[in-house]
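Morning, I've got a small favour to ask if you have a moment. It would help a lot if you went through both lines with me. Thanks so much in advance, here it is.

***
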Amino acid sequence: MNKLFGTDGIRGKANTYPITPEIALQLGKAIAHVFGAKGHGSAKVILGKDTRLSGYMIETALTSGLVSMGMDVLEIGPMPTPSIAHLTTSMGADCGIMITASHNPSDDNGIKIFGGDGFKLPDAMEKDIEDHVLRREITSAHISTEMIGKAYRIDDARGRYIEFAKSSIKNKSLKGLKVVLDCANGAGYSIAPLILKELGVEVIETAVSPDGYNINRECGATYIKTASDLVLKHKADVGISLDGDADRVIFCDAEGREINGDRIIGMCALDFKSRGKLNNDTVVVTSMSNLGLKDAMRNAGISVEMTEVGDRHVIERMRQGNYNLGGEQSGHIIFMDYATTGDGIISALHVLKLMMNTQKPLSELAGFMKEYPQKLTSLNVSKKIPIDDVPELKNVICEADKELGGKGRTVVRYSGTENKIRTLVEANKASLVEKWTQRINDVIEKELC
């Protein structure tokens, strides 16, 4: 068998390895074992999911494995991923599990695991769980009838998270704002509109009718045209597009123009610094962030720490340096003063609060930086050969980096969750971006597709 964990938990096509009920059952046993379940009442887990049809299958199999090892399961149904992280800590659970494939199509599904501190598991603990599953060595024969865990449905989970999210902006009234909210037919479809409405926002909802198949389909953070068109139609102040598990968010301004994670991180960093709230005057981003963000932050006296792609790398660096703001261009924004993971809803609330406090439109707040021309492409690959082991690809990347010098860069990497390779080319001239994007992708198609 292949390894289970990628860059963001376990992910794949539902009903094929590793997203099968058989693996989910063994995974439940392994999680309970690693977290020290010894019988009913000895350990508990918060279990949530997004709106994919396959979530029922995975939820049932995971629960069976967990309770068979004596772990109690607190089921909360469709809820955002960050709510799992929060509820795990607030309810004193040993761990939290979210069944989701985030922004992926409905055919996919996945499993994310959080520790009792609300953070994603460290690599060593994931490896421990993975080893137990792959060796199939765990038996529940020692768990007698009275030790078998119980599964409970937690009815007040939604209310708990609503109050937590609102408290992150001290329940500030947002009355007067008109917002288009695209919930991607995903985990935030019910709770996100409620939170905004309770704070006084006039909400135009879209993609809030999940049917098990339409999650992320022409909606959400990976398809902001839906929100953009509605912003223009309704003359709204801002558009908010969540992804399938609501841990990411992309905005559009009143003109329907996309405002990505780089601009959100930057505008919030400037606000935090002006109020003395930006820890160590530093933000943390990934290698995918635009060089224009780094320039703008440097000019404002803010340092930028850069990590590998993936919100877990951002969070790890934030914890190491005691930083409180970071994220990814793709919309994972981490406000460490309030949350232990990316939270699309809390990010949206902070942006709306900033708009209210400054009485400025999003376009003006986001206008602090000048972006370098940048192009991100994605190609399906038949195999993931290390880039250093593909001489033609390694050579063309070196050629590109040599010509771009200090006025641009390339980032070529495999997706951690899909059979794709992503190419980012950034330069001070659009013509150079197009030239090297084409040349690199030509080699990829020849060697890897």
